[in-house]
Write a structure and sequence with these properties.
Among the domains are: 95 residues, Tetratricopeptide repeat domain (Serine Threonine Protein Phosphatase 5, Tetratricopeptide repeat); 73 residues. Helix 3 packs across helix 13, helix 6 packs antiparallel against helix 7 and helix 7 packs antiparallel against helix 8. The chain is of the alpha+beta class and 552 residues long. A hairpin with a 3-residue loop joins strand 1 and strand 2. The chain contains 20 helices and 12 strands. It has a 4-stranded mixed beta sheet with strand order 1-2-12-9, with no helix packed on it. Bound molecules: S-adenosylmethionine.
Length: 552
């Protein structure tokens, strides 16, 4: 992976500003302000006076620089020539492309050098695109012959092109829920005081059934993946093109570049580099909110859930009354930094120019930051090899409907990523009327009850009453084994079915069918080790089927 930019993160800045502005002295004043925009105003007035804000935060511009671009390209050359490390060199060249000034020779050179990496890795289509990009720019005459020779060679190799995508085609919703646009009609949303809004099975559900398939409300690419994933669609792409003004955003196509710019990037384009972190997703959410506010009031009845909109996510239960002062204040600092930056942006100020807009953006930034710290989803890509399983973070996303699922330490569902689409599947049979649950990270067989309860209380402010907590189920080592597994199952499991090839598809399908059958056979022994083993196998096969074998 290419080195992440130096500089402080947004988290570091918020902490620093909290200390320097002596915000701990403002606790009572802050807590007496129930309106979020007033909280942001209070903090904004304290921190924008500080030298740290003026010299570090406000001055952190994101400008192109040929000098930087050249330096990064030379680091890429070193990796390419001396170490033969083509994949990492490729990321350096992409970074060099991001920094190069529009139309410059530096940009042409970085494209040309990247085409050499793409050639070596057999991404011929992408190699050709980069050669053409270099040639259409100010590429030095003296080196053109070499590039044209590579182009001619690619033409003969095209049939050996490698695939680029880190996930397979997702399952589709077969019987669409009339009230929840991303879900099957097997579930419904209910409300009660104890569980807040929660999801219930409206008929018996079998293991493996898809319950929802939801696109993110918004997402950002993770810093460790930013040079090989499109910042708009999150697709894997080894020859990204840059935003024409800033060094931070890269796209897989012209289409994604203009979609992103028009939708949102025009407001963040010259944002300070400190905001380049997974936390950035909160600004995106607030800006979507600004766009959606009027629409929501106008045409969304309360019982219809449009989950790619802002309307649902803003209503998520945050239990604000339980947050301590620093956790309430940090969102106001982050919102103030973002607000300051947006006010510097003409596109933003010309569109949102009323006092009401001003108040709304502060409120939304504050609330969006809280949502982002409370319920972010980490999109991962998984790579299966014969010897190990590797996973990497691709992005951070916010999902409105999937966030509705409540927690259980014995969840009956798991979710799987197909790029930024999140698919939830039953991993146990669910009876009509039963609550549909996921795990917020605490599973009964891994973590003792007291620790789980403490984490859930501290982070999500509820006392878990799932069956494992109620009946004091032990962790895995202390569980009974349960009924014998069939010899067939043990034999198949001992073979490596996750070897990264597609040839064992039939074996996986057989194993999935057998695992589901065994689940029902073992169910009455729950909790037991063998049931967990079978359930784990089901989850692994679905995760494997979602993932494509790509280079990391
Ligand atoms: C992301 S939200 C889930 C949706 C939420 N129920 C709502 O009404 O918006 C997480 C919050 O849901 C509630 N919650 C989740 N699982 C729960 C459970 N097993 N028992 C009680 N409350 C739960 C807690 O208030 C938690 O902070």
């Amino acid at each position: 992976m290419c080195g992440i930019e130096a500089g402080k993160s947004l988290e570091t800045y918020t902490q620093l500003l909290f200390e320097e502005a002596d915000l701990h002295l403002k606790e009572n004043e802050f807590k007496n302000l129930s309106d979020f925009s007033d909280r942001v105003d209070l903090v904004y007035n304290c921190i924008t006076k500080l030298n740290t804000f003026k010299t570090e935060v406000a001055k952190h511009q994101d400008r192109k620089s040929n000098r930087e671009s050249e330096m990064i390209r030379k680091q890429g050359n070193d990796l390419f020539l001396r170490q033969g490390n083509y994949l990492v060199a490729l990321e350096y060249y992409t970074k060099s492309i991001a920094y190069a000034e529009s139309g410059s020779t530096n940009l042409a050179l970085a494209y040309a050098n990247r085409s050499a990496c793409l050639y070596e890795r057999r991404y011929y289509k992408q190699c050709l695109e980069d050669i053409d990009r270099a040639l259409s720019l100010d590429y030095p005459e003296k080196s053109k012959q070499k590039l044209l020779k590579r182009k001619a060679s690619v033409e003969t190799q095209k049939s050996k092109q490698k695939q680029v995508s880190y996930y397979n085609s997702p399952p589709v919703i077969k019987s669409k829920n009339p009230l929840i646009d991303c879900a099957e009609d097997s579930i419904e949303i209910q409300y009660n005081k104890k569980y807040g809004r929660h999801v219930i099975a409206s008929r018996d559900i079998k293991i493996g059934e898809v319950l929802s398939a939801e696109n993110s409300v918004c997402h950002v690419v993770h810093p460790e993946s930013k040079y090989i994933h499109c910042h708009e669609c999150l697709e894997l792409c080894y020859n990204l093109i840059p935003c024409e003004s800033c060094c931070s955003s890269l796209y897989c196509s012209e289409e994604c570049r203009s979609k992103c710019y028009e939708g949102y990037h025009k407001y963040e384009c010259q944002f300070h580099k400190i905001l380049l972190s997974p936390l950035m997703v909160f600004i995106k959410l607030a800006l979507i909110g600004m766009n959606d506010l009027k629409k929501i009031e106008a045409d969304c009845p309360d019982n219809i859930h449009l989950f790619n909109s802002f309307k649902e996510i803003i209503k998520l239960e945050m239990n604000e009354e339980n947050w301590n002062y620093i956790n309430l204040c940090i969102p106001a600092i982050a919102a103030s930094i973002a607000y300051y930056t947006l006010k510097e942006n003409q596109e933003f100020t010309s569109k949102y120019d009323t006092d009401e807009d001003d108040c709304n953006i502060k409120k939304l930034l504050y609330k969006a930051y809280m949502i982002n710290t409370f319920f972010p989803f980490n999109i991962k890509k998984i790579r299966y090899t014969p010897n190990y399983i590797e996973s990497k973070r691709v992005g951070t996303a916010l999902y409105a409907f999937t966030s509705f699922y409540n927690h259980s330490c014995v969840p009956n569902c798991e979710f799987f990523y197909y790029g930024s689409l999140i698919v939830t599947r039953a991993q146990a049979p669910i009876k009509k009327g039963e609550q549909v649950t996921i795990s917020y990270g605490s599973y009964f067989y891994r973590t003792p009850k007291a620790t789980r309860q403490e984490i859930l209380k501290k982070t999500y402010f509820f006392n878990c009453d799932c069956k494992a907590c109620t009946h004091n189920w032990p962790t895995i080592m202390d569980l009974p084994i349960g009924k014998d597994l069939s010899l067939w199952f043990i034999l198949k499991v001992s073979q490596n079915i996750f070897d990264g090839t597609e040839s064992n598809q039939k074996l996986q399908d057989e194993l999935l069918t057998e695992s589901k059958r065994l689940y029902y056979e073992l169910e009455e022994d729950q909790p037991c080790q063998n049931l967990l083993r079978v359930q784990h196998m089901i989850t692994e096969i679905y995760a494997y089927q979602a993932s494509r074998d790509v280079e990391f």
